[in-house]
Amino acid sequence: MKYIAPRGTVDILPDKIDGWIGLENILRTIAENYNVKEMRTPIFEHTELFNRAVGDTTDVVSKEMYSFEDKKGRSITLRPEGTAGIARSYVENKMYALPEKLQKVFYMGPMFRYERPQSGRQRQFHQFGVEMLGIESPYVDVECMMMALNIVQALNIRDVTLHINSLGDEASRDAYREALKDHFRPHLKELCYDCNTRFEKNPLRILDCKTDKDHPAMKSAPCTIDYLTETAKAHFDKVCELLDALEVKYVIDPNMVRGLDYYSHTIFELISDASVLGAGSTIGGGGRYNGLVEELGGPATPGVGFAFGMERLIIAMNNNHLESQHIDVYVMPLGEESKDYSMQLMAALRANGYCADMDFADRGLKGQFKSADRFVARFSFIIGEDEVENETITVKDNITKEQKQIKVEEIIDFLDSKLGVR
Length: 422
Ligand code: HAM
Prior knowledge:
The protein has helices spanning 14-33, 47-55, 59-63, 83-92, 138-154, 170-184, 193-201, 216-219, 230-245, 292-295, 310-317, 336-351, 365-374, 385-390, 411-419, and strands spanning 37-38, 44-46, 66-69, 75-78, 103-112, 124-133, 160-166, 251-252, 264-272, 282-288, 303-309, 329-333, 356-358, 379-383, 392-397, 403-407. By secondary structure, the protein is an alpha+beta fold. It has an eight-stranded mixed sheet. A five-stranded mixed sheet has the order 13-12-14-15-16, sandwiched between helices.
């Protein structure tokens, strides 16, 4: 039998890992700048959590979940997204009772959706997400959007547009739902079976339908923004005003509804023009979810957040190389005795905080220099018989190409002077 990775999953091999670590480091730095702390929740949760939080008429829940029964017959699901788990944990750990009313958290990790794999769309993919729970204020919506935009900027991703819309509060959404029903009622016979079910249960989801997306009634459907209550409109106007004051460019997209049920008020997406992304041009999205915590048994608590698809960020970064990791020293032993000596030398280098590796393949100098290049080693240390006998090292500076002999007891001082004390 030939073993291959399951469809829609990808191995991240060592030659790609520098890009991932570089991305993760930038995301962590930005999180630190926004005073957002990391939070880690399980990769699997009770299926019921996603049915309730994300909504059982959404595609994510009804078509894309990886669900299974565990050995005790409980229905378990690999998380398709991060917000539900964070909200569940927020309630379970009574984070609403913490002295700091606004809890700002981020998470990074694998998510699972049974979708048709293509460029930027996988069945196991990674998200970097942020959730801000506890305060209902348009300022916090904009804090989230600014952080998302900062990430795009820091990664040097160009041609990304911020699309925003508002779904309003409960009363706005009730009015909108009725308007949608009135609009679609005369077309029900022409729409698919799923749309007919959605019509009864959750008419908003008709707008996500992939089968009927080209039906003329889709284009002429009413817009959420026309059904906002006064308070909801005031919230959205303030978001726009703040974005204007910060000189952020955005597009109001009255047809955007997002594919998850927990949203209320502001929703947003970051859409890239990069053709490499194809169908996966939405690199990130999010919005406000004021009812979610209460829905999961907690006290009424507003929330807002967003998530980026990390594979999509990497594709959109394209050739914006993040600095690839290099090593400080590549040790090149020539002969058996030199190998013992080299192992001791590497132990000393690492004990002093330097990043070192050596040739374990007994190759000649030429092959070893090739590895030093591949590892982008700052220095090569050549250790032959003479060096062992005289307790010296032939040091090659791989930038200046200069080569000189250095006494072994002086080598740490030498590196400290060149690379800074570690
Ligand atoms: P979402 O729009 O479903 O939102 O996903 C966020 C991002 O994850 C997408 O914009 C996309 O970049 C990426 N993504 C989604 N599915 C896939 C896939 N199959 N393959 C690769 N990337 C994918 C959420 O998940 C919400 N939880 C975001 C949020 C946080 N809203 C409030 N807080």
